[in-house]
Amino acid sequence: MNTHKGLILDETVKYHQDLQEERPFVPGTTEIWPAGAVLDEADRAALVEAAVDMRIAAGPSSRTFESRFARKLGHRKAHLTNSGSSANLLALSAFTSHLLEDRRLLPGDEVITVAAGFPTTVNPIIQNGLIPVFIDVELGTYNTTAARATAAIGPRTRAIMIAHALGNPFEVAEIAQLAEEHDLYLIEDNCDAVGSTYDGKLTGSFGDIATVSFYPAHHLSMGEGGCVLTSNLALARIVESLRDWGRDCWCEPGETNKCLKRFKYQMGTLPEGYDHKYIFSHIGYNLKATDIQAALGLSQLDKLDRFCEARRRNWKRLREGLDGVPHLVLPEATVRSDPSWFGFALTVDPDAPFTRAALVDFLEGRKIGTRRLFAGNLTRHPAYLNRPYRVVGELTNSDIITDQTFWIGVYPALTEEMLDYVIASVKEFVGAGS
Ligand SMILES: Cc1ncc(COP(=O)(O)O)c(C=O)c1O
């Protein structure tokens, strides 16, 4: 390594160490965040190295991240994106590609999804002129069931796109089986569930395609970022085209003529030999991430197993500490799953002698951060009011979630002291003793 660069990286590590002052936990004063990026000196050095090398666009670190992450999650291909939302857009849009011929999704086709969740699991359905079919979820797991999904299948149903709620797997083996029986595509929004397993198998590996987010609240952070994963090479090619402006060519930026046919194609009504680099076979975007993001991702990836372990440990401590507290629905792992938790959801019983708002106010007043279970019932938001969609069954639990549910953190930076303070605070408010 160049001496100047070596010095910069050494100084970066020292700078990081300088910033690590001992900060004792002060109950009620120290912020207990619900989520956040956990970044160490190696992460800081990785970012600085990518910056001093001026790797400002997608490049070799992005490719390395994609192949390491695909291997880690048991897929043949991963495509890095600028967010989890972009990953969802690409994942769903891939099924509208003309390359799938009569298997492609067409406007008016239906996609089963849940009403209580994150908006950008659903938005790609609407964006593509498809119809979301909303079903309810269970309280406690915050996931839907295979039975609910089965009831929602109609003559135009062509796909299922659902997120594993707060890291807790939905009944993904059964829903994958259902998808196979009814010839439906299955898209797993795995943004909140990296490292979770169902029947001992990683979530994100059951469906046709899966997505991940690297926004700071998530298991791995790139600041902003996301990923589309699949083992279907035809789909991977479509995702790449959609992500990279819609182009037909698969040369990396800076590469030319890998196929040795760059000036030999004839496509559309273009003249013979039109430069393949500029032939567009999809209505695409540019949703790539940069090598600066990928460098951070690579450094974070080394710590993924530890992060997932800490999330499981923290969730278990909260779960055991709050067990038996009245008036609260405590979270439950879906049967046969081992979640790599994103958060710890609490639902205040509708007939409790206190409101969710009062409990949340009390916790926030003690610097214990809370978050809503994202949108609650999406169909009640202004953006969805006049959209075409179908609802199957009642959305009773989604409505309860809208009114009564919130979640607190389990992310790796939380200490036992903090978690015990959270437990004691909830018990104090509820009047359950400590
Ligand atoms: C389930 C789910 N899907 C998708 C996303 C979107 O990810 P991003 O914020 O990276 O766009 C999120 C974000 O938190 C999410 O929780």
UniProtKB/TrEMBL annotation:
Reported cofactor(s): pyridoxal 5'-phosphate
Pfam family, one: DegT_DnrJ_EryC1
UniProt keyword Transferase, yes or no: yes
Keyword terms of this UniProt record: Aminotransferase, Pyridoxal phosphate, Transferase
Family to which the UniProt record says this protein belongs: Belongs to the DegT/DnrJ/EryC1 family. L-glutamine:2-deoxy-scyllo-inosose/scyllo-inosose aminotransferase subfamily.
NCBIfam families, A to Z: PRK15407.1
PANTHER family: DTDP-4-AMINO-4,6-DIDEOXYGALACTOSE TRANSAMINASE, TRANSAMINASE
Name of the featured protein: Lipopolysaccharide biosynthesis protein RfbH
Lineage: Bacteria, Bacillati, Actinomycetota, Actinomycetes, Kitasatosporales
Gene that produces this protein: rfbH
